[in-house]
User: Fold these one by one.
Assistant:
Number 1:
Amino acid sequence: MTTAPAQVWQIARLTFLEAVRQRFFNFLLILGAALIGSASFFHQFDFGPQELRFTADFGLGGIMFFGSILAVVATAQLFFSEIENRTALTLLAKPVRRWSFLAGKLLGVALLLFVFVGLLVSLLAAYLWWQQGQRIAIWHAAKLAGEVKTEFPDLLRVQFVGLALDAVLLWLKFTVLAAITLLVASFSNTNLYTVIVSFFIFLICQLQYIAHDAWSGLESPILRGLVWFLSKLFPNFQLFAIGDQLVFIGKVPVPDGAVVAAFGYGVLYLIVFTTLAVGSFRGREI
Amino acid sequence: MSAPAIRIQHLTKDFRLGLRGIKLRAVDDLSFEVADNQVVGLLGPNGSGKSTTMKVILGLLEPTLGQCEIFGLRSDSVAARQLVGYLPESPYFYRFLSGRELVNYYAGICGVPQAGRARRVAEVLDLVGLTPAADRRVGTYSKGMLQRVGLAQAIVHDPRLVILDEPTAGVDPLGAIAISEIILELKRRGKTVLLCSHLLAQVEDVCDHLVMLNQGRLVTEGAVADLLRRENLTNLAVANYSPALRADLEALLARHGARLQHVDPARVALDQLFLEKVGHAPTKDSP
Amino acid sequence: MTIDRTSWWWRRGRGLLILVASLLAAGVAADPLQNAAWPEVRSRQPEMNMRDLADNVGQGTLLGVLGGFRSILADFVWLQGYMYWEQHDRPNTEAMIQLATTLDPRILTFWDQGSSMIAYDIPGWAWRDHAEDLNSSDPARAAAAAEYINQVTLEQGRRGLSLLDRGLQFLPHNFTLLEAKARIYTTRLKDLPNAAENWRLAAAAADSPFFAARMYFQDLLKLANAASPDERLRFQRKAYDYLRQLYPTLPADAPAAQKGVMSDWLRALEDVLKIPHDIDPKYAPPPGWKTDPTQEYMPELFPEQN
């Protein structure tokens, strides 16, 4: 009998192969690349030395937007296609554990998201590299003319290692979102319901930080308890924004411990949502 | 004595429908056994509980009451599923894979060792007659080819029990005969086959044993020969039959206390006629 | 009462309870990790730190709902604003500027260029629209047009300042915004004291160019000129003290620092204030500096000397 990890990998591999053939993935990839490319259009608006930050924000914002859509829609689509086509029936009639099936699906989606984020961030990094070179040259000329006192400020330079770390955090966030979608799919009957509920949960997770920051300031104990409860129920997706702070050095650098904590936070919720999805799927009648 | 291939004892399965929880009893106190190395037909009209019973055997559904064992192992265990190969009804597979890749994928899932996997895949593809089309994408396969590749993925890991759900549905007579021959070959190789089909002629031809369900209950079961035998009646096929011969036969039979029940012209089976008219024996390449 | 454990309600209710309990436990377990990282995120996102709760929830909801999308939306809104600007559509231009800065308050250019459009371009449109009236042979008509344009200039100047003040809440001590404020006070509102104060703040900002300090210094001298004799001395002394603390920090080899000119001003102020010339080497003129004997930049600043 083959080992469970080997099965998980095989299912993941096939899921990935199926996913990259889908037009939706390629469409989002092209759209993301076009959006990053369109940042050059804003060149003419002369944002000054801030241009790099603008381009990075714009590009990362686009990756965030399309990546979130991909995480939810691809996960739901890849899960329900197996259920509706009954390939899940064929697979689960084999000596495959249900958790292996789900883990394989999630891993396949994670690979897809890794490729998506990797390609787009690489494109963004290449563009930023070129743009930064231009900006440094302009600054250097201004320094020679005596218009500025210092070298091109480090505060305005792109930190490419930081950008890579931000990409990993983005990917982790998308994978957590995929795990949430898988949890919803494990008890949902339709693809559409899964997508809608998952996006709704995504929105709540984006706003969770308001409850997290607000509960201690409330006077009514009932309201306090309720808001505290809500703040603990969902993960804080804004936490992953710590990656954005790594792309440019701030006046106060981000402590390494905070970045590691953000990673740990993402991994913890990935495990939690995957475990809940497995538990829910065990009772599902195929 | 070795454990039977399938042992079902007092199997009951209820489904809850909707918020009000209306109970639908799909299988009601079903018990039967399938011995090793038999070809067993599971018959019944639509809604009789055949699919539910099969899903319980495959570990895809949990019984409400009762139990199911495969060669002495609980049917919902992974070890039991290692011994089972399954061809679903109207199989759908990953269209972008070739036949060989598909069977190879399932072989890997089922733990066929990497070392001999390619050889094993080639073997089963040859057995089901798909070698010429093995490297084409499954998306280009005809209905019959899909059934064949489905059969291949079901047996690639050399299971002891093979469950086939409507294996010849939508397949032409040549293809159906080819699949029947594969089933008989599997039996010759020591496998147990559970066949679920609405094509009663085919079931009659290949099966040793029958289990018949209706409204979730067992109606009858037994060896095909025993179930289909008509008591106190014997068929004779006579060549050069004439009215004079009939009179002599009736007199002879009367002397022995027998009676000529009815006389019908002998008929050739429709599939036999089809084969004669088509003009060639079924080949491995035929869909 | 017996519980039907196979009922939909029991099964779903039990499942929901397990789900909620698990997520709650996860939330509590993740708290240490969140508390380690969240303050770092929060402190670096100015829109999460608004003092006013309503603003906080408003900005926070936008940030939360839109996340990284907001920067794209803000950029498209900004482009939209550009289109309205080309059409000289004041209400929509201002509306798009306000919306873009609300959506993404991190972008300096939105505040800077936005305030410039509000404070300078819009009055310019008014001037063009009323050019005929301004040049009219009817004095009353010309006066009315001039008064109208003056009111528009003042009003737009104030609106530009209001935008910049809002920007400084998100980007505190930002040189570009403080410079913009100083220029609006100077050119639009003719408010020298506030202009001087903003030049002072701009000069103190990180990476401010050399000229910012000079602008503050010059404004102090203009204030001195405009003041009563008693107040004039106070402003001149203030300008001198400022120049004394600034002068040693100026590099001698950077033309933009104009150290030589600054040394002349130092000497001139010492003369006006009747202070002996400081012989401390750190206040010496840069090597090779020759004072321009005409000192043409001086008359405006030292009217009593000339």
Number 2:
Amino acid sequence: MLGQSIWWGCIVFETLLLVRGVAGRLWARYPIFYTYILFVWLQSLLRFFVFHSRPQYYSAIYWITEGLGVLVGCAVVFEIYRVGLASYPGTARMARNLLGFVFVLAFTKALVDTWNDPQWWLISTTMDLERVLRIVQALAIAALVLLFFFYSIPFGRNLRGVLLGYGLFIAESVIWLTLVPLAGEKFHHFWYQLHPASYFAILGVWLVQLWSYAPKPEPKTAVCLEHEYQKIASVTSQRLREARGYLVKAVRS
Amino acid sequence: MIGVWGAFAGALVLLLVLLAWVRAEASSKDSRSDWGAADQEQSEGENVEACSPEIVSQLFSAADSKFISGLESPGLENLFRRERTAVALHWVQETSAFISKVMRRHLEASRLRADLEIATEARIFLQYARLKLYCGILFVLIGLLGPQRLAGTALHAERFIQRVGEGLVEFQSAAQLREPEGSESL
């Protein structure tokens, strides 16, 4: 009963998130994130339909949609980087290098593992692969957040919400995907309740932070340049007025 | 494959980083929302300067201590030691704050630059970390041994701080001079 309520609650929150995204035109600012939410919403409905009408296909549908979800999730990380650092070319360059380093590290680790045990790829379950991809995402997000933190990049409410919610979701997924195969039957029940409940809480974070559009603070230099321009413009127009006054006086005399 | 502990460590690192970031965002929210306050803070930061080596040398010098000891007044000697230690600790705190301000201004300037060099940034960060470590060690040692025994160390730290601080300011000025060229992309 509780599981069903959480499940329906998630669908309601996702619907609300999509409706608010369209109403506030937030989807145009964060297209990949809203594609991700739309994907998760459709996935939930598809799984529900398959679970009740074709239960024999449920497992296959579950893991296919889960895999696709991980890939769309990687694009969400890229969107956080793109939107958050659009006005900061210096930090964006650092982020590119840092993310490149994280991915090279993950790729090297996978290569070394394959070299040591060429069969691991075949015997790994879909869950193992998802866990590896989620850990790589977790490290990429941690590297990005460290960079944002270090360079004091100001965030708007919306982007902060996307990053915070997605970061929490990834951390929770890594813990869940690691503990479920290890935990006993008793814990299975607990984890299968906790996982959707934490996702429900994350949707709540997204809903609060993305309820309406909040402008992102612009870097100080841009404001300074504009301010300087306004100052120069007002001084110039004052001097022009004075010059015009002298000219009129000169013509009259 | 990544082991259980590796996975937990990854999740924990992410959670801790997120927590630290949210806390830092919340604490700096007010100052960011008010540009006037931010500008004021920046101009205040520009006014903060590290002490001259002469003052530092005087502060950590044993000459005053010898003079007070010569008066043979234990009360006065204790008071002098307490006061001098407090001033020395205050100097370390001010110096540490100065280093942080210079570094913050450098980061604010460098985050907008397109020609950022990772090697240079890493070197600056390592120097910053070294300076902060110096300040931390000095703070502990002054508390334990008193300022008079640390004259050499303090002067060395002061010279190093001055050199790195000046270097950072020059680097920042050069970056600001290049800024109008880069600002076209904004």
